[in-house]
Design a protein that fits this description.
Strands 1, 2, 3, 4, 5, 6, 7 and 8 form an 8-stranded mixed beta sheet that branches. The protein is 37% helix and 15% strand. The chain has one domain: Rossmann fold (3-Layer(aba) Sandwich), CATH 3.40.50. The protein has 6 helices and 8 strands. The protein has 210 residues and is α/β, with parallel strands linked by helices.
Length: 210
Amino acid sequence: MATTKGAGSKTPLKGKRKKSRDLSASPRLRVSASSSSSPASSSSSLPASPHPPLVAVIMGSKSDWETMRHADQSLTEFGVVHECHVISAHRTPRLAAEFSSSAEARGVQVIIAAAGGAAHLAGVIAAHTVLPVLGVPMKSEALNGVDSLLATVQMPAGIPVGTLAIGKPGAINAALFAVAILANTRPELRQKLHSFRERQEVEVRNATLS
């Protein structure tokens, strides 16, 4: 594991992912060359970090990682410092409240929250912070993710959650949405987004049917 580089930078964009399992220890950021490892299961108090991640990616279950690794990969491709954790709105309610309440003070600027079934994680997180919260409904066994979608999107007026598509498309778009939010004050990220869109257009224009 490697500590954050560019400590003197005002906007850390070094493509790292926070993977500390013991969050009471000094946070360390790891280069995300691959996303084969699972996210940390948060179980202790969350300290302030001098070089915090800009985006927090949280999910209600470790099984959600197969989908949410795509958000992790997308953020890494844009060079955005981020962290990934497993936090359950129902099984670890105090941790969920603590995590979201302290996120702003730790320097997090966007939270991506994924859950399935009775998918209350994004709403619970949003209730404890004024940071932008992006919800990703997970595909469920019972109702194929429709239950997750409705549980995430049907928020009462006053506590907004930006809800994305079910599953992998939602995970990727949540990361891109987070990048777009950060890009409002970071010209280098805005340029990366323009380049990303241009590459997409070229790929579609050059597509051939065999």
